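User: Just a sanity check before I run the rest of the batch. Below are the C-alpha cells for the first item. I only need the designed sequence back.
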C-alpha cells in the first residue's frame, strides 16, 4: 500500500487490514505511515511500516524485497501515492514542475508495478490497483502535468492487465472524483473549491476517503475475479 500515511491510502490500508490482509504500510513520510500502522494494530490488524519514495527505483525495489522477506510474498498491491498540481495553465508551467509531477505520479507508479509484478508472478497471481483520478479520464482545468500523468497511469494499468493476464494477475485503476483528504484540503485552501465540487457532483457532496478505499479493496478481492483492465470512476455520478 503506497501513500498510506494520509487520505485515500490510509483509508485503504485500514480497510485492507480490516478484511484480514497483512498490510505493508509505505509512505515517503515515515511518521504518518507509522501512525497508520498503529491504527491498524490497535484494531487487531497486522501491519509493517516501510519508508518508501515511489520516485526512487532502489527505494521501491527494497520495499518489495522487504515485503517478500518478511511475509514470504505479495498478493495485492495498491499504488496510491501521488501528488497534486492544480493551479497552472500549460504555458505558465516550468519544465521542472511538469517533470516533478509526472515523475512522482507516473514514473513512480511504473516503478512500483515493475517490482510488484514479478513478486505476484512468483506467487501464482494476484491483483494490482492503481489510484488514478477522474483526471486520468477527463480534463481538469489548470492541471496539465497531473492530468497527463494520470492518463498515463490508466494506460499503464491497461497494458499491464493485458500483458499479465496469463499469469493470473488482474490490474485495474480507480479514478476518484474530488475526495476530502488532507491532500485535497491543501489544494483547496483559500479557494471555493469544496462548494464548487459539491455543486457540480450529482450526489451533491464530495467523496470520503473510505469510499475510494472500499472500491480499491473490492478490486483486490475475489468478488472482482473476472474484472481486469478497467478504469472505474468513483465520482458521485459526476461524469454520467
Ligand atoms: N483527494 C482527491 O480528491 C483525489 C482525487 C482523485 C485522485 N486522487 C489520487 O489519490 C491518491 C491519494 O490522494 P490523497 O488525496 O489521499 O492525497 P494525500 O496528499 O492526502 O496523501 C498522499 C500520500 O502520498 C504520499 N506521497 C507523496 N509523494 C510520495 C512519494 N514520492 N513516495 C511515497 N509516498 C508519497 C504522501 O506523503 C501522502 O501520505 C493520489 O494519487 C491522488 O492523485 C485524489
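Assistant: Here's the designed sequence for the first item:
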Amino acid at each position: 500500500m503506497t501513500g498510506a500515511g494520509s487520505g485515500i491510502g490510509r483509508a485503504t490500508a485500514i480497510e485492507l487490514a480490516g478484511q484480514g490482509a497483512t498490510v505493508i504500510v509505505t509512505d515517503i513520510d515515515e511518521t504518518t505511515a507509522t501512525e497508520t500502522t498503529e491504527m491498524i494494530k490497535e484494531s487487531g490488524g497486522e501491519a509493517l511500516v516501510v519508508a518508501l519514495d515511489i520516485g526512487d527505483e532502489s527505494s521501491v525495489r527494497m520495499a518489495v524485497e522487504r515485503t517478500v522477506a518478511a511475509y514470504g510474498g505479495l498478493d495485492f498491491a495498491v499504488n496510491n501515492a501521488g501528488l497534486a498540481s492544480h493551479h497552472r495553465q500549460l504555458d505558465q508551467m516550468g519544465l521542472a514542475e511538469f517533470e516533478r509531477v509526472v515523475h512522482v505520479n507516473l514514473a513512480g507508479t511504473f516503478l512500483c508495478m515493475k517490482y510488484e509484478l514479478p513478486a505476484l508472478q512468483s506467487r501464482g497471481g494476484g491483483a494490482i490497483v492503481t489510484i488514478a483520478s477522474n483526471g486520468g479520464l477527463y480534463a481538469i482545468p489548470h492541471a496539465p502535468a497531473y492530468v497527463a500523468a494520470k492518463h498515463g497511469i490508466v494506460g499503464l494499468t491497461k497494458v499491464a492487465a493485458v500483458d499479465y493476464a496469463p499469469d493470473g494477475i488482474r490490474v485495474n485503476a480507480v479514478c476518484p472524483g474530488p475526495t476530502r483528504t488532507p491532500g485535497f484540503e491543501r489544494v483547496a485552501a483559500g479557494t471555493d473549491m469544496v462548494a464548487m465540487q459539491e455543486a457540480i457532483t450529482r450526489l451533491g457532496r464530495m467523496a470520503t476517503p473510505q469510499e475510494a478505499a472500499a472500491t480499491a479493496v473490492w478490486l483486490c478481492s475475489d468478488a472482482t475475479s473476472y474484472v481486469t483492465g478497467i478504469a472505474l470512476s468513483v465520482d458521485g455520478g459526476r461524469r454520467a
